[in-house]
C-alpha cells in the first residue's frame, strides 16, 4: 500500500489531514446553487442544459461573477469550505473516527472514489460538448465582418478554435472523455488523472490568459486530478524518476455486503447517464441551430449588405467614417438576427458563454463590440411584395426599429420605417457577393502529421 513518507508534520497529522480533506471535498461536492435547474416543465428539467449544469455544478456560498474577466471571487468558496471542514473536524473529529473506525488508507480510498466520480462526470460532459460542436461553433457572417480588435479576448479564443481544421478541438474533447472514463476504474485512475492534469493545466492557463471567466472552476477540476494522482505519485517517482525497484500498491478495498451489492449497479447507472447525455447532445445539435436561434430569418436574405442610401429624418447622409448615425454594412443571418456595423460605440455584453438551450441563445453577440445585434419578427404583407419586420436590440433592449421591407431584386433590400423615438429612416441595401476563403478552402490541405 502507499506509504506517506514526506515530512514529520504529515506523518504526525496524516489522519487529521485526510479527514479534513474528505470533509472539504464533500462540502464542495454538494450542489448548493438555487439556480442550478431552470425551467418549470418536465421537458425543461431533463433538458441538455440542466444535465450539463448538474454535471459541472460548483458549490457557491459566494456567487461567482456572471461576467468574463479576471474576477476570482469563487476562490472564497474554497476558503469557506476549508474553514467549515476545520470547524467540523475540531468539533466532531473524535466522534467521526470512532463511528467509522477506518484507517488512513481506507479514508484516502473513499476520498479518491468521491473525487474520481466527481471529476469523471464533469470532464466527460465537457469533452462531449467539444467533440459535438456545441460549445465552440464556427463563426457567423456577423463575426466574419467584425474587426479583430472589437472582440473580447475570450471570443477570439473561441473563434480561433471554432475554425481549426486540424482536429484540435475534437482531440482535446476526446482526451477529456478518455481521461474521465479511465477514472471509473481504480486500476486505471492513475492514467486518467495524469492525462487530465496535462489537459486541465492548459485549460487553467487559457482561462487566465483569455479571461474566459472559468478560472476558479477549471482550477477546481485540476485540484481533483492532482489529489487523485498524488496517491500513486511516490511509486511513480520511484519508477520513472529515480528508476529504482518499486513495490506495487498492496491496498485492496474490502466492501460490506450492501456496498458490494449496489456497486455494479451504480457504475452501470453512471455509464448510462453519460450515454444518454451523449445521444441527447448529438440530437440537440443535429436538430437545431444551437447555439444560434432556431427561428428562421427572411428567406434568401442571408449575407452581408453594403448601405448604399441612408436617409435619416428626410436628410440623406453620405458614406462617412465618423458620422454616428449612418450605417456601414448590415448582415442578415440565416436565422432571425440582423446586425449593423456603424461608427457609434456599441455596448458589449460580457456575460460568460454558457450552454443555454432553455434560455435566450446569446452566444452570437457575446463579446462582440463591433456590431449591434437585433432579433426580429416578420409578417408577410397583404400584397406579398412587402414584409413588415420589427427589430429589437439584443443587448440594448430599448433600441428598436419597425420597417417595411421591399426586395425589388435578389440583391437589393429596401427598408422604410421608424425607430423607437419615431424618427423616420429609409435605407437601401445592396448585397455583396462575398466569397470567404475560410469556406472556399485551400488548394491543398495542410498536413501536420
From TrEMBL:
Entry annotated with the keyword Membrane: yes
Transmembrane segments: 12-32, 75-93, 114-136, 156-183, 190-210, 216-233, 265-285
Keywords: Membrane, Transmembrane, Transmembrane helix
Protein name as annotated: Beta-carotene 15,15'-monooxygenase
Amino acid at each position: 500500500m502507499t506509504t506517506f513518507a514526506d515530512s514529520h508534520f504529515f506523518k504526525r497529522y496524516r489522519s487529521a489531514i485526510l479527514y479534513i480533506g474528505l470533509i472539504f471535498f464533500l462540502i464542495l461536492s454538494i450542489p448548493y446553487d438555487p439556480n442550478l435547474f431552470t425551467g418549470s416543465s418536465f421537458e425543461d428539467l431533463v433538458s441538455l442544459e440542466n444535465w450539463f449544469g448538474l454535471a459541472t455544478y460548483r458549490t457557491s456560498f459566494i456567487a461567482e461573477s456572471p461576467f468574463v474577466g479576471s474576477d476570482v471571487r469563487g476562490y472564497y468558496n474554497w476558503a469557506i469550505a476549508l474553514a467549515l471542514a476545520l470547524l467540523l473536524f475540531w468539533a466532531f473529529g473524535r466522534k467521526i473516527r470512532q463511528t467509522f473506525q477506518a484507517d488512513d488508507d481506507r479514508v484516502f480510498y473513499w476520498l479518491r472514489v468521491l473525487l474520481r466520480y466527481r471529476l469523471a462526470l464533469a470532464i466527460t460532459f465537457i469533452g462531449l460538448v467539444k467533440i459535438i460542436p456545441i460549445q465552440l461553433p464556427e463563426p457567423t457572417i456577423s463575426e466574419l465582418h467584425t474587426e479583430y480588435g472589437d472582440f473580447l479576448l475570450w471570443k477570439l479564443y473561441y473563434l480561433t478554435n471554432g475554425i481549426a481544421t486540424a482536429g484540435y478541438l475534437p482531440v482535446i474533447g476526446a482526451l477529456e472523455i478518455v481521461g474521465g472514463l479511465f477514472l471509473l476504474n481504480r486500476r486505471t485512475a492513475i492514467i486518467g488523472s495524469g492525462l487530465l492534469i496535462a489537459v486541465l493545466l492548459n485549460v487553467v492557463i487559457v482561462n487566465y490568459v483569455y479571461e474566459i471567466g472559468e478560472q476558479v472552476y477549471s482550477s477546481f477540476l485540476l485540484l481533483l486530478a492532482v489529489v487523485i494522482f498524488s496517491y500513486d505519485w511516490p511509486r511513480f517517482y520511484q519508477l520513472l524518476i529515480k528508476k529504482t525497484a518499486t513495490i506495487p500498491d498492496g491496498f485492496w478495498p474490502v466492501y460490506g455486503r450492501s456496498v458490494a451489492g449496489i456497486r455494479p449497479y451504480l457504475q452501470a447507472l453512471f455509464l448510462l447517464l453519460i450515454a444518454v447525455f451523449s445521444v441527447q447532445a448529438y440530437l440537440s445539435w443535429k436538430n437545431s441551430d444551437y447555439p444560434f436561434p432556431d427561428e428562421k430569418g427572411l428567406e434568401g436574405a442571408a449575407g452581408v449588405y453594403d448601405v448604399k442610401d441612408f436617409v435619416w429624418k428626410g436628410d440623406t447622409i453620405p458614406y462617412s467614417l465618423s458620422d454616428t448615425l449612418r450605417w456601414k454594412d448590415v448582415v442578415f443571418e440565416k436565422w432571425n438576427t440582423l446586425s449593423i456595423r456603424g461608427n457609434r460605440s456599441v455596448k458589449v455584453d460580457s456575460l460568460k458563454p454558457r450552454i443555454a438551450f432553455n434560455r435566450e441563445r446569446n452566444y452570437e453577440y457575446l463579446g462582440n463590440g463591433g456590431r449591434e445585434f437585433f432579433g426580429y419578427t416578420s409578417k408577410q404583407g397583404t400584397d406579398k411584395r412587402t414584409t413588415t419586420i420589427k427589430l429589437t436590440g439584443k443587448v440594448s433592449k430599448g433600441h428598436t426599429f419597425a420597417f417595411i421591407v421591399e426586395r425589388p431584386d435578389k440583391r437589393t433590400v429596401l427598408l422604410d420605417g421608424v425607430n423607437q423615438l419615431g424618427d423616420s429612416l429609409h435605407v437601401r441595401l445592396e448585397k455583396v457577393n462575398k466569397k470567404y476563403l475560410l469556406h472556399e478552402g485551400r488548394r491543398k490541405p495542410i498536413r501536420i502529421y
